[in-house]
Here is the input.
Amino acid sequence: MSIILGIESSCDECSASVVRYTPRGPIKVLSVSTFSQIKLHQPFGGVVPEVASRNHLETINPMIDAALAQAENPKLDAIAVTNRPGLVGALLVGVTAAKAMAYVLDIPLVPVHHLEGHAASVFLDSDVPLAFPMCLAIVSGGHTNLYIVKTPPELWPPDFLKRSLVGRSRDDAAGEAFDKTAKLLGFPYPGGSWIDRSSKGGNPDAFPFPRALPQKATLDFSFSGLKTAVSLTVEKLKKEGQIDSHLADLCASIQEAIVGALISKMGLAIREHHCRSLAIVGGVAANSRLRSKIEEEWQKWGLETAPLFPPLSYCTDNAAMIAAAGAFRFRQGHFLRGRALQTLNAIANPEI
Ligand code: KG4
Ligand code: ZN
Here is the structure.
């Protein structure tokens, strides 16, 4: 059994968490403390890197203190920190705090790839047995990636993310497509949940927005054409003074285009790779239409169990998932300690 402190500061959430890892058992989350910077960035319509890193500096210590206190100040076996990819100034805050703590406590430090954290979120507080191969979709503001996960996380190779990736967005991420089209409609950042709420009662077929890359051969996505199509439609409706009366239809149609593209590629990946289970994580996993459509479709795909949507607090950026990914890598011996800690850096765009 190991007790791991996780630290996440790669974008606009500052988070610390303590988890308990037992080999082959579920990962028990003992505490999570997260500060979301959304309100700070809202006036700018998106995340401002300098604002993010300055705020992380103010909140990192209180988050770590709160997570340790909530977990009743346990003896830590290791610290895990997101060191890639992300905003480099924001990453550096978490990495520096983690290095200092690991050095002073003389315990191992595990560098974690943020997306490996999202992948590990599937195993938090869950004793649902997952059948492999599993199709894993990470659908967030920054990524729309499909992975085929063939083994439990203790056996993930160092290049797991590269090796398991079967599909990704060639331009905007799904969350970004929600946010950019929501902005065109005048909603605040981040706009995904606004489109979700405002689509209620709207007709999803009112505007036939393009579904990118519908051809069977690829598991990749593309959402930039949708943004252009929505922009032209919004301009036209504004000129005609028709935008308000069509808002629900517009939201429902945008959502349908994004969700439709996600679902068709997930179904294709599951069939092509003979997947036995499906997990969907990332902020877009909160989308109500995505959830209800998956509910309608999954039995047709031959899955053995109902698709897994971890609780939203584990889907959006959080340190519990970083601690979990760190626990798996710690067990494999991937960590730094003592003077070697000096070599760890934050990396904005790693190769994998
Ligand atoms: O995973 P996340 O919190 O942050 C990143 O790592 O990017 O995802 C944030 C994204 C935003 O683009 C946001 O608009 C989207 O998730 N989102 C939603 C919903 N809730 C959040 N998109 C569609 N429907 C929602 N209900
Ligand atoms: Zn993320």
